[in-house]
Amino acid sequence: MDRFTKKFAQIVPSIREMDLEVLASQSLTGSCIEIELGGRNVKTFWHRAEDPAAPLILELHGGGMVLGFAAADDALRQTASDITGATVVGVDYCTAPEHPYPMAIEEISALIDELEINAVKYGIEPKSFAIIGFSGGANLAVAVAARRNSYPGRRVDALLLHYPILDLVTEPTDKPPQDDALPAEVCKAFNELYCADADPHDPYISPMFADDSMLKLLPPSVIVAAEHDGLAAEGKTFAEKLKALGTDARFSCTPEVSHGYIEDYYNPGIYAVRGGKTEGQ
């Protein structure tokens, strides 16, 4: 762990506190249900469809597996539910450095099992199940889908990955340059805090290094990149890998935007407290 990462880890609690102050001033559309998983109460935020049999979509927020709260994506999830007619559930999964790899993957997997086993309790009867992930959340979405789809009778039916981080092996400074939305030193800190003592070559950490047998477990996937994002290239390469294996994988790159643009749009308050410039600045 380099010097910057050690200093960054020290300010992570302060960044979280600033986020929580903003979120405390915002009203939520979704309803919050706390679910006990492995001794931790995990907050989930529900945006329900009228039909209990509607598709279920799990939403995993961004933040490099270190920062972020599901509550910040409230408006985003409600829009997704309105557009798709699905029940959309946001997850406050555990984050590093307190909970490094593989704890978030295990927790999200346990949550899916809980929702499946006790579907009646939660008022759902989904005929299909998908995961939407943003940035670090997209990384977790891939890992969870591959893990779950390796078991007979358990399926993730689709993935929607927005500006995913898929390669934690390559130094961020060696990736294509990008604007200031995601500085390379912060990316490296995220990677080191999440991996801790684990090998970043592990395909459940860096899906870009997964072998064909793991990649074939993934369901139809849509990958959406941002033009001014150094992660766009790996998103495109990953989509091409899936296509080569016969998976229905679609890639698109949104022009003239930066990493995190969707979540920033739907919660400008969090964007501003993180140092982003709002309109007119």
Which helices and strands occur, and which strands form pairs?
Blueprint: H1 3-24, E1 31-37, E2 40-47, E3 56-60, H2 74-84, E4 87-91, H3 103-117, E5 129-134, H4 136-148, E6 158-162, H5 184-195, H6 212-215, E7 221-228, H7 232-244, E8 249-258, H8 261-266, H9 268-273
Parallel strand pairs: 3-4, 3-5, 5-6, 6-7, 7-8
Antiparallel strand pairs: 1-2, 2-4
Supply database-style keywords.
281 residues; alpha/beta; 8-stranded mixed sheet; 9 helices; 8 strands; 19% strand; globular
At a glance:
The protein has helices at residues 3-24, 74-84, 103-117, 136-148, 184-195, 212-215, 232-244, 261-266, 268-273; strands at 31-37, 40-47, 56-60, 87-91, 129-134, 158-162, 221-228, 249-258. The chain is an alpha/beta fold and 281 residues long.
